[in-house]
Amino acid sequence: MEQQQVEQWLAQNAKKLPAERVNEIKDLLLKADDNKASAAQSISLKDGTTMMLIAWIAGAYGVDRFMLGQTGLGIAKLLTLGGCGIWAIIDIFSASKRAKEFNYNKLREVLA
User: Fold this and answer.
1) CB 102 within 8 A of CB 68
2) What does the pLDDT read at residue 37?
3) 107 near 36, Cβ under 8 Å?
4) Which of 105, 44, 92 is nearest to 65 (CA)?
5) How many domains does one find in the chain?
6) pLDDT tens by residue, 4-48
């Protein structure tokens, strides 16, 4: 992937990725071949704000965990109704960070 394409992609998606890992992502994108680069561009990244709203609205049912591929935790959260509400409240504040880490791991998986 060319430098200009990488800069453009990062400008569009930086808010959906962990800020401390942007340089690492930039290096991975620059080293990626055309197939991996096009796959990285087609990835649908989760928005942290949207995940926070989902955690607020349906967090007691584990919907936020299911959306991030954490099926086991989603089931546990569903069965306990968000840990009697405590787990659900904590997840509201951590949903954005978890979404960014999910996006980073997904991107790294495609580029590796």
Assistant:
1) yes
2) 87
3) no
4) 92
5) 1
6) 999 999 999 999 999 999 999 999 999 998 899 889 989 999 999
Q: Which domain holds residue 17?
A: 3-111
Q: Give the amino acid at 95.
A: A
Mind giving me the DSSP string for the chain? Answer: --HHHHHHHHHHHGGGS-GGGHHHHHHHHHH--HHHHHHHHT--PPPHHHHHHHHHHHGGGTHHHHHTT-HHHHHHHHHTHHHHTHHHHHHHHHHHHHHHHHHHHHHHHHH-
> What would the pLDDT profile of 64-94 be if each residue is shown by its tens digit?
999 999 999 999 999 999 999 999 999 999 9
- Length of the chain counted residue by residue: 112
